[in-house]
Design a protein that fits this description.
7 strands; alpha/beta; single chain
């Protein structure tokens, strides 16, 4: 995964501004935080942010893991009180059964089935009994419907609920849909008015046709 690490090393200094300092990025951030606020209610939990990047969601976690030293350096400046581990997500230097919850956003979409399985195996190792991993992934059903064609590794991987259920070491606990409408293609002035309607549709019977799925898996 060295190509991915090099990519994020190069854009670390401008990542926050380029990805989230715009109406589309703020919409994604708002919706992800809304869901995490529902799921992360126990303040005593030991939470790890896997592929923490520049620390956008580290206010929810006490430990950040990332393979990019440049991204970790920025995250450390934001959160000097947090613990950081630099390294690959399938080789985390933590003891067995030591973490209550793992969160991982905007990461699995850059992988493939083999690497995701390796990371889930490692996550299973470090999670306590009944521990959770919460992550986002593009919806395979949505992409199939729209005829998505990948160009490279960036954001190319997707899943549906049936594929996730095939993993025998975790079970699906809760699921959410995110971004039913292509918000970034609407005029900026009207995007905020679409939030409630978008949230409703993304979590209705049409959930799997949202742009992204947020999955909470529980360790078996």
């Amino acid at each position: 995964m060295s190509e991915i690490v090099n990519y994020y090393n190069d854009l670390a200094s401008t990542y926050d501004q380029d990805r989230f300092d715009n109406s589309y990025g703020r919409f994604i951030d708002y919706q992800e935080r809304r869901i995490l606020d529902k799921l992360l209610t126990d303040k005593k939990e030991q939470i790890l942010d896997l592929a923490c990047g520049t620390g956008r969601l580290l206010n929810y976690a006490s430990i950040g893991v990332d393979a990019s030293p440049e991204m970790i350096e920025i995250a450390r400046k934001k959160f000097p009180e947090k613990k950081f581990l630099e390294g690959e997500a399938d080789r985390i230097i933590l003891e067995n059964n030591s973490i209550d919850t793992i969160i991982s956003f905007h990461f699995f979409m850059h992988l493939d089935q083999k690497n995701m399985n390796l990371i889930l195996e490692e996550s299973h190792r470090i999670l306590k009994n009944n521990g959770r991993i919460i992550f986002d992934i593009p919806s395979r059903k949505r992409r199939n419907l729209l005829g998505f064609k990948k160009e490279n590794w960036h954001g190319a991987y997707s899943l549906d609920f049936d594929a996730i259920k095939e993993n025998s070491t975790f079970k699906i606990k809760r699921t959410f849909g995110l971004l039913f409408f292509p918000i970034h293609r609407f005029p900026k002035f009207c995007r905020k008015f679409l939030i409630k309607f978008d949230t409703f549709l993304a979590n209705s019977f049409l959930k799997e046709y949202s742009s992204y799925l947020i999955i909470e898996l529980e360790k078996r």
